[in-house]
Amino acid sequence: MPAGAAALESGSGVDPRSGLRFWFVRDEGMSLRLAQILPDQTRGFFLARGFSAAQSDRIALSCVFQTDFRNIATGDAPLAYDLREWVVRYRGESRRMKLRADWDREWREAGLAPGPRTAFEWALYPTTQIYQAGDYNWGLASFDLPPGARFDLELVWTRAGTRYRHVIRDMKCVEDRHMEPGGETAE
Amino acid sequence: MKRSARRRHARAGRGSLLGALLFLATAVPADEALMAPLAQPFAAPDFDLPCEGGGRCRLADYRGKVVLLNFWATWCPPCRAEMPSLERAWQKLGGKEVVVLAVNVGEDEDAIFAFQGDYPVSFPIPMDESGSVVKDFRVTGLPTTYLVTPDGRVTHRAMGTREWDSAAMLAWLRAQARPRQGGTGDGGAGRDRPDRAVLNGR
Q1: Is residue B187 part of a domain?
Q2: Residues of chain A with C-beta less than 8 angstroms from the C-beta of B24
Q3: What residues of B are in contact with residue A139 (Cβ under 8 Å)?
């Protein structure tokens, strides 16, 4: 399996508006960006959508990233991924991301009403997708790790029948802290 | 509750939270892509949903026209970003051959009404609060827009934003309403591209 095309770029930075960190991978025809979101922002978002304080807290403290994955090719080759193939490496263990089906099981067991469950499902990043040229999605990705946790993320995607793999090293779940007026400063 | 009161209520509850999430959104570039043909076109599942503002929205009522069927939510920044171009496309297309239906997913009328204070649109907004219709259409992420042919087939899809009122897109959409006079009508056989004259007119 290729480790990625020679043109692959990967790195991280700080969003100048939020002061929060983001990680990106850009290859021929694909672009992925994972950006930290403060737990308070996640709490507020779900509190406004019918979740209890405890449930909103549960989501907010599960290491949520804003995710933007897109097919930036000009040709016809579709780009496909399946988040069930992505591997989170944390403290020497390999695990999966927490996906729509995992959360939905938890919400049903907790007796969450259909309305909030629907809102949650559509806010979370799709588990599998096939993007044609110009297609992309935007949504929340949850890693089910504690605030401040550092981890590596192994990505897998398929393009024109070829599978690619890349590891983003030393990603970090944002700490549970409050947004200061005028913006945050990343550590 | 009167609309003005509902708008204030909804804004107070959601505005600041939306703003907090919105600033994290990446910039959405102008996109040259049109819509991709589906490998397996399918018959559009009919729906009968409450319309924002009153009445019912039934897909079957638009049989005979091309329907640009958009699925969206107010909290989704790309969805918000493409609303103005969808509205302009709706205005330019005039509703004779091509109509726009924007199905809201999983939200109540207050949320949608508050949204319209910032993003006024005049096309119909069916409200799929339970999320059943979006599943019938096999949508996996927002925004997703389908093209439904006059005979009720779903043949093309766009995920993410598009410039719905670009010259190329408008010409392509009009062509879909008249497949024998220049539309691809391929039902998914190949990638659609605007012809050179259309591209030069951008």
Answers
A1: yes
A2: 15, 18, 20, 35, 37, 41, 66
A3: 141-142
Please list every residue in chain A whose beta carbon sits closer than 8 Å to the beta carbon of residue B107: 119
Range of the domain at A31: 9-172
Count: domains in chain A: 1
Q: Compute the half-sphere exposure of residue A6: CA atoms within 13 Å on the CB side of its CA.
A: 0
Q: Apex CA B37: angle with CA A118 and CA B59, to 5°?
A: 50
Closest Cα of chain B to A182: distance in Å? 13
Question: What is the extent of the structural domain holding B181?
Answer: 3-15+34-200
CA of B35 vs chain A CAs: smallest distance (Å): 9
Instruction: Decide if B40 touches A, using CB distance below 8 A.
Output: no
**Count of CB contacts below 8 A, A vs B?**
103
CA distances from A182 to A46, A173, B16, B42, B58 (A): 24, 22, 15, 50, 47
Question: Is the pLDDT assigned to residue B14 strictly greater than 80?
Answer: no
- CATH number of the domain residue B55 falls in: 3.40.30.10
Partner A contacted by B136 (CB < 8 A): no
Q: Which residues contact A5 (CB under 8 A, 6 or more apart)?
A: A27, A28, A164
How many folded domains does chain B comprise?
A: 1
| pLDDT at residue B198 tops 80 | no
The reported pTM is: 0.81
CB-based contact A137 B159, cutoff 8 Å: yes
> Residue A90 falls within a domain, yes or no?
yes
Let me know if residue B85 belongs to a domain.
yes
d(CA B115, CA A136) in angstroms, rounded, equals 23
Residue A15 in this model has a pLDDT that exceeds 90: yes
Q: Which residues of chain A are within 8 Å of residue B129 when distances are taken between CB atoms?
A: 115, 118
The pLDDT value given to residue A7: 81
For A96-111, the pLDDT digits (tens) are: 999 999 999 999 999 9
Q: Scanning every residue of chain A, which has its alpha carbon at the shortest distance from the alpha carbon of B143?
A: A137
User: Is residue A18 domain-resident?
Assistant: yes
Interface confidence (ipTM) of the complex: 0.82
pLDDT at residue A149 in the model: 98
Q: Please give the pLDDT value at position B82.
A: 95
The answer to the question of residue A48 being in a domain is yes
Residue B183: other Cβ atoms inside 10 A: 17
Report if residue A185 sits inside a domain: no
